[in-house]
Amino acid sequence: MIKNIFCLLLFAGLLQSCGEDRVGQVPTDSKSPDKVENVVIKNIPGGAQLSYDLPLDEDLLFVEARYEQKGVVRNVKASCYESKLIIGGFGDENEHSVQLYSVDRSNNYSEPVTVVIKPEENPVYAISRSIKLNRGIGGIDIQWKNQLNTIINLQLYAADDEGQLQLVEVLASDAAVGTFSLRGFDDKERRFAAIVKDRWDNYSDTVSGVFTPRFEQLIPKAGYKRILLTEDNNTELGGNWAWGKMFDDVTGVDNNGWHVRTNGSGHGVYFTIDLGHKVELTRYMLWQRGGGWPYTQNNPKRWRVYGRAEAPDLIYSKHTIDDQEYWKEGFRNDTENWTLLMTCRTEKPSGFDNPNVTELDKEYAYLGHDFIFSEDLPAMRYIRFTIDETWGGGDLFNCNELAFYGKITDDK
Known about the structure:
By secondary structure, the chain is mainly beta.
């Protein structure tokens, strides 16, 4: 009996010990720290920066600001090694009370110091006013400015068949200058709209407009043909590095596409494509070799794209194969027989001249590079690439994938 009582008392003692276990700092006193002093208020867009003198308490842990926002009590903390904190998220320019507390390592709070802030205009409104909506390919093109690099969501809407605006895309961005092309719509008139939202659920006014998108379709790759003109590179490594692999919809990989075996001409790489139709071109996309290869070695860096409507073999009636001056030099910059459609380069987020390749650069390249043709170009069928420079600086060349978009103007 005595033994059983002893065990019960021991068990109860263990339970009491477990119940008193504490996680974190054990309080050392119950004395409240002194208050912060000499608070200086700097109102900023959507909030305020509060600077202050810290109390001299040796066990000071942090300073906490408490305030109400849209009926919710929020707080911001700054460590004892800082003498300022920033409050954000206000969607108005009214006055708001803020209580500042000093807090020590025993979790003792000081008496509050109350200040009144008056935020400047929230950034979502300035960003909204900067938005420009323009007619685009299969939709609209959007541009905006975000001078404070505020983290925002840009909500994009398009009218459905009943004319009701529906959310179709949400972009997250903190870029100082933003651009985006919203696509996937037919060439019928409809209303498009944009709203800016921040992480505190502040919304801008709606920016909208009525646009008729430019029509486009993917020009069927099955109809693409290789045209070999004098000085065109007719080599390939074979296997997964063959001409036809440049049009098989496999992107973002490091072992698929067209890779030349030699530079062929000795003065750059040329190649020519028959699209199979006359096309009012809207854009084309190019994918670099993926994996760890973007912006390196034989991936294209600078090049030109030419076009013509009639078969290029007609050029031989003016310049025979024996016309060495033309085929070796003049052909490279021939704008008599070809129309220069655009001059291109593979941009990268970290900067075109940055010698390093970041992970963001690679992700950007995996998505493909988009090149927009001028809207006033006549229909073209034959496209010619003149590669002026690769990222490795050599004479070889590789390309993962190509795709052309536009409006077919014939049935051939």
